């Protein structure tokens, strides 16, 4: 297995070349409402990635008190711009705005987040992880898989994509009995953004590969993976422990998600070109 960091660098170099051959500069618009510090930092990361591979990123910051209708109208207008390949509305949105209603204004051929159920794009976190595992020749066929978490943007699409790869998938969630669900799994994906959920966590089998996706803040306020206490103790952040391997934390899965977004923007640009 190559590391997530090495993989991200290889993929970005490949994308840079492919984008240079497009004949035009792909454009991504990121719409932010308000000034959430975590969103500011995610968007800064997206901008850096885009610059690296030759995508133009346009960051639109709208006031916190914008109404749902006004935001919907903004999104619709931006989608009409023919030079725009991808449109993202950064989450979280203020509580008076329903993200699902706003996402309906994003044209499906520009929904590079893959959040709409009819989007031709897969959501970036599941896509990034699966592409990374495929790159490392991970054999999915017939594997017994546990996905913990049923969000619309990670757990559910991940379970669907793994099923399509011929895995046998158990989709567990906050109401599941994990003692049963953990048994006899080849690979486990943890996708619940609540560290406390995993406090009383059962033991994984030594040979279970673990992809730790969900994040939370530990007692020191540091952003860490769901299983941080467990995985750091066992793996000390390395990629292997006994038979199984672990990918964890913001520097692992986060990088894969970022690469997948760039790949989706490139795919949208190819669609615009008619390829
Ligand atoms: N907020 C945190 N991650 C994401 C993401 O991948 N897409 C959007 N739209 N908002 C986010």
Report on this structure.
The protein is of the alpha/beta class. It has 9 helices and 11 strands. The strands form 3 sheets. A 6-stranded mixed β-sheet has the order 5-4-6-7-11-10, with helices on both faces. Strands 2-1-3 form a 3-stranded parallel β-sheet, sandwiched between helices. A two-stranded antiparallel sheet has the order 8-9. Helix 1 (4-20) packs parallel to helix 9 (253-273), helix 5 packs parallel to helix 6 and helix 5 packs across helix 9. The two termini are 32 Å apart. Bound molecules: guanine. Guanine binds at residues 42, 88-91, 113, 124.
Q: Into which percent range does the helicity of residues fall?
A: 25-40%
CA-based shape: globular
In angstroms, what is the radius of gyration? 19 Å
Kindly report the average pLDDT value: 88
Low-confidence stretches: 235-243
Q: What structural category do the secondary elements indicate?
A: alpha/beta
Number of continuous helical runs: 9
Bound molecules: guanine
What is the helix/strand order? Answer: HEHEHEHHEHEHEEEEHEEH
Strand order of the largest sheet: 5-4-6-7-11-10
Keywords, please?
single chain; 275 residues; alpha/beta; 6-stranded mixed beta sheet; 3-stranded parallel beta sheet; 9 helices; 11 strands; globular; binds guanine
Short recap of the structure:
The chain has nine helices and eleven strands. By secondary structure, the chain is of the alpha/beta class. Helix 1 packs parallel to helix 9 and helix 5 packs parallel to helix 6.
Secondary structure blueprint with pairings:
Blueprint: H1 4-20, E1 27-33, H2 37-53, E2 56-62, H3 68-79, E3 86-89, H4 99-103, H5 124-135, E4 144-148, H6 155-164, E5 168-172, H7 178-181, E6 187-190, E7 209-212, E8 215-217, E9 223-225, H8 228-235, E10 240-241, E11 244-247, H9 253-273
Helix pairs in contact: 1-9, 5-6, 5-9
Residues 42, 88-91, 113, 124 line the site of guanine.
